[in-house]
Amino acid sequence: MAGSKKILFVEDDRFISDMYSRVLRKSGYTVDFAYTGTEGYAKAQAGGYDLILLDIMMPEMTGIEILHKLRGEDGSGFPDSRIIVLTNLAQDAASKDALKAKADGYLIKADVVPSQLLEIIASLGI
Amino acid sequence: MRESEKFRRQAIVLFFAVGLFPALIVSSLWYVVTRNTPGSSLLGLGGIAVPIAILGLLPAIILGLIFAELLSHPIKLISEAIYQMKQGNLSYRTHFQHDSEFASMAADLNDIAAGMQGIVSQATGETEVISAERNKLRAVLDSMDDGVFAIDKADRIMLFNKAAQELTGRSIAEVAGQLSEKVMPFRRDGELIMASWLADRRVAKREQGEWRNLQLYRADGEVLYVDVRAVKLPEDPNGIQALVTFHDLTKSHNLEEMKVDFVALAAHELRTPVTAIKGYLDVLRMELDGKLNDEEIEIITRTELSAKQLAGVINNLLNISHIERGDLALNFQQIDTSKWLKGLQKDYTTRAHVQGLSFKLQAPAKLPKIIIDEVGMTEVLNNLVENAMNHTPTGTITVSTKAVGDELEVLVTDTGSGIPKEALPKLFTKFYRVEGLHTTKGTGLGLFISKSIVEAHHGHIWVESELGSGSTFGFRFPVAGNGEVPDNTLKGVKEKAHGWIKKNSVR
Predict the structure, then answer these.
(1) Which chain A residue is nearest to residue B497, measuring alpha carbons?
(2) How confident is the model over B68-102, as pLDDT tens digits?
(3) A68 burial class (0-12, 13-18, 19+ CB within 10 angstroms)?
């Protein structure tokens, strides 16, 4: 049972984060929210999350910046947290930036419906 | 002194001399006769002899004058005519009243003068025409909005019209004789493009000779965006090797950029609500799982399909802005062809079913693996299948595929209305929509985008259609990719059309 798994959802659009988290909660995950980049970074730094879902385009700090800060230069930071970028930026460049910043995944919101996200998370063993 | 005058004088002297002898003889005889006559004194009779001798001279002088005039006149006339010709008066004509050798000589002279006059007037006319043409050419060049310049063999600038001066902010004095690569350096993405190279290439490759959207730096450092045409003139007598015309597109280039940026921004903004629509429909389906009847499920399915179509339109808009910026970034990966097609089959079948059509996938059991940008090629197939469905009221949409040599061929065949013959050549151009078809669906972008994506894979796309009996759209591309080394940055990453997840993500 995934009851004990904690997910941090960093997304400035509440409509979108509500949509995904509704399904995640129903599946037994504990979901925390952050609505700005700085808030997201602060919460993530506090630690304890099995998965962090990160938007890129956010006020104050972008998702890529948060990734860099969390993972650090050598990419070894927060080894217990999986970090997946969940964005609508479909550009190749953004995807590669995320890879370089040691993201564990890169998903396009417009192409991933909540049930698919659930499947993906489950496939990661979370 | 002119010859005719000299001749006249000589003639007079001659006749005078000739007249002198009879006069001397007459006066001497008279002297001898009168000396022996009695009663006459020497002085008396001899005194008369001198005036008589002088009287004898008179006719000689008169005759001399008349003969001299008769002889020298034609020579004088001819000499005058030659003198006039020498002075450039070619309209001068000489006249003789009587037939003589002189008259025919004069007539010949007149003919020569007339002939020369003709040649000279023709030459003068031509010179006038040439200088008029030159002025006209200069006026035309200077009245053009496009910049024009010419280069010689050594790539030095020979001609520089007014527009070129205004557009570049350089004067003729600054550029004349300078190397064109120094003062008129066209660039594409920073790389220098020589005007002479453009002209040579046009000849060698038989290209249209137009290079679009090159950059040209003004004297003040501002960048211009220009379309350039270069024509070779190797036979030019003035030594012009090539003529280069450039059309300033900076304004429309900037506008175009704004438009592309706007479209990209608008499309991006549209993505968020579409994400929500698709997402909430999915939530609805999950939460009401088992509680919905068939009709309700059908309603959700149709709404989902519409949302997907909308997402497709948005993707096309985003693709267009990438194509126009020239940064259609493709991510080549090796994929399993059968799996790829089967994944799409599900969606196409549902879609066909909703529209009362049937969908068939015809593929051999074994297909070669292909190196493609999966997102892009899926977009191509989506566009073709969508078009087929939009133009097929009843019947079947078939996607068939097979390996042909080193290439994979994909055909999308419908049993629809077909496309008028005259529309076929324009189908793949941007914003083109076939007029008079029953459907008003489509933005006119899908086929243009598909062509761009297929060509980026070094493939080609085509259509065959007959009005009333359906159409077949096909595309073919090398299975080994476009020759570029597949991007390995995402190696070890499971990539799908919707993104990627690291395979060994367990930390």
Answers:
(1) A111
(2) 777 777 778 888 888 888 888 888 888 776 666 77
(3) middle
Whether A88 and B268 lie within 8 Å, measured CB to CB: yes
Q: Cβ of B271 and A123 within 8 Å?
A: no
- Put simply, whether B346 touches A (Cβ < 8 Å) is no
Give B506's contacts in chain A (Cβ within 8 Å). 124-125
B314 to chain A: nearest residue by CA? Answer: A110
Sequence-distant (≥ 6) Cβ neighbours of residue A37 within 8 angstroms: A10, A58, A59, A60, A61, A62, A63, A65, A66
A96 reaches B (C-beta below 8 A): yes
ipTM of the complex: 0.88
Task: Extract the tokens encoding B256.
Answer: 């175009």
Q: What angle do CA B168, B169, B175 make, to 5 degrees?
A: 75
pLDDT at position A70 is 93
User: How far is B394 from B416, CA to CA, in rounded Å?
Assistant: 7
Mutate to test the interface with B, among A109, A116, A117 (most CBs of B within 10 A): A109
Considering only CB atoms, which chain A residues are within 8 Å of B498?
107-108, 111-112, 116
Distance CA B240, CA B199 (A): 12
pTM assigned to the model: 0.58
Determine which helix (DSSP H) or strand (DSSP E) holds B323, and give its type and residue range.
Answer: helix B294-325
Residue B469: per-residue pLDDT = 86
Please report, rounded to a whole number, the percentage of residues in chain B having pLDDT higher than 70: 84
Report the distance separating Cα B328 and Cα B374, nearest Å: 13
Nearest CA to CA, how far is B328 from chain A (Å)?
9
Chain A residue closest in CA terms to B321: A91
**Rounded Cα distance, B490 and A100, in Å:** 10
Confidence check: pLDDT of A57 > 80: yes
Say if residues A74 and A44 touch (Cβ distance below 8 Å): no
Interior angle at CA B416, CA B303 and CA B448, nearest 5: 75
Rg for chain A (alpha carbons), in Å? Answer: 13
Residue reference for tokens 């030459």: B123
Closest to A53 (Cα-Cα) out of A89, A95, A101, A104: A104
Nearest-5° Cα angle at B76, B75 to B77: 90
Angle at B250 between CA B245 and CA B254, to 5 degrees: 155
Q: Is B495 strand, coil or helix?
A: strand
Distance from CA of B495 to the nearest CA of A (A): 9
Chain A contact for B280, CB < 8 A? yes
Say how far apart CA B472 and CA B418 lie, in whole Å: 9
Contact between chains at B499 and A99 (C-beta distance less than 8 A): no
Tell whether B500 is within 8 A of chain A (Cβ). yes
Q: Mean per-residue pLDDT for A68-86?
A: 89
Query: Which residues from chain B sit within 8 angstroms of residue A76, using beta carbons?
Result: none
Q: Under DSSP, is residue B255 helix (H, G, I), strand (E, B) or coil?
A: helix
Angstrom distances, CA of residue A96 to CA of A92, A105, B259: 6, 11, 27
> Residue A83 and residue A79: Cα distance in Å, rounded?
10
